[in-house]
Each structure stands twice: as structure tokens, then as C-alpha cells.
Design brief:
With 248 residues, the chain is of the alpha/beta class. The chain contains 7 helices and 12 strands. The termini are far apart. Bound molecules: iron/sulfur cluster (SF4). Iron/sulfur cluster (SF4) binds next to helix 1.
């Protein structure tokens, strides 16, 4: 397992790797590029490149970590991929239940499979469950998430690809927004992000602005780190636990 560079988590846990593209947000998938690179380097676990592969030998990794840790589950895949057997999902959730001192952040673009899997199940309390909403066309995923009884329900609006318009954030606890990275990144406009930030404030939902990516607020392409993380001159680093402080 690895420490993560993702701003809103601590470590990644990938009990499966590999995936396939389902919507516009997948176009420049970071995991795909990374998996191909790791395969070329002969890295263990990436023999199949970006093909979906269950990794049962990684299942027990969280059991060996005593310090309470926030894990992003499957940074290199989608936990609810079409080829993921429900029996293997059961084994993953068994580990999650047996490690209540950890927090597991799970994010999917496969809202229907997620809903089907949780239909008759009670989610462990240490799961934060999210869907990606990269544009106005994928807002429908929020309704699937809203109906699942997770402790924290969150949206990853990254890469933000268009003006998403109005958002119904009822029963949503946290929203993350970010622009795209990489040479083929598509630009994000600041008014699209500000619109979401304003709706989070109105609807009392924690808001986290992750990054601009490779296109800056001024519409100029430069190094990601030079574009920073400020939106309209302010850093937004809210987490769902902090929501009461944020709205004082
Ligand atoms: S769902 Fe995620 S991991 Fe899978 S192809 Fe799309 S962006 Fe990549």
C-alpha cells in the first residue's frame, strides 16, 4: 500500500486493479496511463496492464495497520466494475468491517452496480461512499447514491467538464471539485466551480476544492502546482466532520 498524493485521503488500497471507460470523465484516465507504465516496468500486480484483475493477496493489507488511516479504495480501478464478483466484494467489505479504526473512501462511476450490491446490505459505518459527477449529464448518479444508507455520502466533481447547473445536494455531506491534469487535460472555468461552491454553502454541504489541474483560473495552461488550489482567492479544505465549524 502507498501513501497517497491525493489531497483528501491518506493511503490507497487497491484490492483490484484495472478498469474500462464508462463516461467522459474517463477520457484521460490517470489509472490507465499509470497501469500501462507499471506493466512496461514489470511491476508486480500489473502483468495485465489496465485489464480488470482481482488482487486477493492484497485483501488483508489494512489488517496490518494499527494507526487509524483514511484509505481511498481502488485508486487504480472501480470497485463496482462489471467484472468484479460480488463474492469478492463481500470479502473486501468483510475486511472493512473488521477494521473499524480505519475509514474507507469509495468512489465509483458505476452507480447501478453499487446500488444493486448494497440493495440488501447494511454498510459498515466506516465507509464514505461517493460517485463521480464530471458534467451535467452524469448528475443522475447522485440519486443512486442518495438512496444508500452510508455514513458519509460524497461527490467527486473531477474533472469538472462543464457548467453543471443546479445541484440537489439533499443527503449529500461532502463535495470535492477539481480540474483535470495531464497533457490532454480539458480546461475548467472558474464560474463552473464557484457555482458548485455557492450551492454547497447554500445547502450546508462541506466543500473541498482539490486543484485547478493544468489549466489555471485565467485559462492559461501551466504546471499543475503553479495553478495552485485557490478558488477566487481562498482555499476550500472542508471535510464532512468540519461542517459545523464551517457554518458557524
Ligand atoms: S472509472 Fe475511473 S479508473 Fe475506470 S476508466 Fe474511468 S476514470 Fe479510469
Amino acid at each position: 500500500m502507498k501513501k497517497s498524493k491525493i489531497e483528501w485521503t491518506e493511503q490507497t488500497w487497491n484490492p483490484s486493479v484495472g478498469c474500462s471507460k464508462v463516461s467522459a470523465g474517463c477520457q484521460n484516465c490517470y489509472a490507465e496511463a499509470m497501469a500501462r507504465r507499471l506493466k512496461a516496468m514489470g511491476t508486480k500486480g500489473y502483468e495485465n496492464g489496465f485489464e480488470f484483475t482481482a488482487m486477493p493477496e492484497r485483501l488483508e493489507q489494512p489488517l496490518n495497520i494499527k494507526r487509524p488511516t483514511k484509505f481511498f479504495v481502488n485508486s487504480m480501478s472501480d470497485l463496482f466494475h462489471e467484472e468484479m464478483p460480488f463474492a469478492y466484494l463481500d470479502a473486501i467489505f468483510d475486511i472493512i468491517e473488521r477494521t473499524p479504526h480505519h475509514t474507507y473512501q469509495i468512489l465509483t462511476k458505476r452507480e447501478r452496480i453499487m446500488a444493486e450490491y448494497f440493495k440488501d446490505k447494511i454498510l459498515p459505518k466506516n465507509v464514505w461512499l461517493g460517485v463521480t459527477v464530471e458534467n451535467s449529464k452524469t448528475k443522475y448518479r447522485i440519486d443512486y447514491l442518495r438512496n444508500i444508507n452510508a455514513t458519509i455520502r460524497f461527490l467527486s466533481i473531477e474533472p469538472l467538464l462543464d457548467d453543471i447547473g443546479s445541484l440537489d445536494l439533499e443527503d449529500i455531506h461532502w463535495v470535492i471539485v477539481g480540474g483535470e491534469s495531464g497533457v490532454k487535460a480539458r480546461p475548467m472555468q472558474s464560474d463552473w466551480a464557484i457555482n458548485i461552491k455557492d450551492q454547497c454553502k447554500q445547502q450546508e454541504v462541506a466543500f473541498f476544492f482539490k486543484q485547478w489541474g493544468i489549466w489555471g483560473a485565467d485559462g492559461v495552461k501551466r504546471k499543475k502546482k503553479d495553478n495552485g488550489r485557490s478558488l477566487n482567492g481562498k482555499i476550500y479544505d472542508e471535510y464532512p466532520e468540519l461542517i459545523e465549524e464551517y457554518f458557524e
